[in-house]
Design goal:
The chain has one domain: Ribonuclease Z/Hydroxyacylglutathione hydrolase-like (Metallo-beta-lactamase, Chain A). 19% of the residues lie in helices and 28% in strands. A seven-stranded mixed β-sheet has the order 4-1-2-3-5-6-7.
């Protein structure tokens, strides 16, 4: 795959596993459980290939104990297999943009050996602190080059892919604005789990910093009012409407 167009990067949506958790983990005040996707995006830019998050690790394939009771990871869902299905060599990925380092967002990092990981510096430090059990060091402490950033970062230097801080879920969470030929996409990650999270300004039941999380939702709300299409981090209903493994036309995204 090689983007030779001049209208901006191309985006492809990929599902890299599922996890079932109490719904209140994603939006407060809700009962029951919800099965949600691990959402990954391939960004094909003329200057290189980037992934926004990498889903679950392939170590969950076939696992039926421990986390395997709540994580579903078919073999074809690993990021390496998802890329190969698009005729993309995992060795050719240049950049991994980790929204944060939880195991459903950084699990596939090790399958992309030549990629440089881009992460907010505060997130990198927090991942090693041991304060949050959703981090697994084996997922992100892989020996790959790591570019630690602080604040906004223009990935390709042309304004088409801008990383920006959206803390609250974790201290160093970040999202991405991607300007394509068909509009602007905001890859939210876990700063906004469901469409309802943004519509109703509702936080998850447990957050690292509620004030920061609320501020991140407000930032996304302003972007949505300005016309950006928000890709909510774990919304199963929204995700069903997003074409998988195909070039996304943002004009068709609801």
């Amino acid at each position: 795959m090689q983007n030779s167009q001049t209208g901006g990067p191309l985006i492809y949506a990929l599902t890299c596993g599922y996890i079932t958790l109490p719904t209140s983990y994603f939006i407060s005040g809700e009962e029951g459980k919800t099965r949600v996707p691990a959402c990954v995006f391939l960004i094909d830019h003329p200057r290189g290939l980037a992934l926004f998050d990498t889903g679950f690790s392939d170590r969950f394939i076939g696992m039926e104990k421990g986390l395997g009771k709540i994580v579903e990871m078919p073999d074809e869902h690993s990021i390496a297999q998802r890329l190969r299905a698009l005729d993309v060599d995992p060795d050719k990925i240049d950049w991994i943009i980790n929204s944060h380092l939880h195991l459903d967002h950084a699990g596939g990092n090790h399958m992309l050996p030549n990629a440089t990981v881009i992460v907010q510096s505060e997130e990198w430090d927090f991942g090693f602190s041991g304060e949050d059990g959703a981090y697994a060091k084996e997922d992100f402490d892989t020996g790959q080059p790591v570019k630690r950033i602080i604040g906004e970062h223009d990935l390709f230097g042309d304004g088409s892919v801008i990383l920006f801080p959206t803390p609250g879920h974790t201290p160093g969470h970040q999202s991405a604005r991607v300007r394509t030929a068909t509009g602007e996409a905001v890859l939210a990650g876990d700063c906004c789990n469901f469409r309802r999270s943004l519509d109703e300004m509702r936080l998850p039941e447990a957050v690292y910093n509620a004030d920061h999380y609320r501020g991140s939702l407000q930032k996304l709300s302003a972007l949505r009012r300005a016309g950006a299409k928000i890709f909510y981090g774990h919304d199963p209903d929204f995700w069903e409407t997003v074409p998988q493994a195909k070039e996304l036309d943002l004009r068709a995204v609801q």
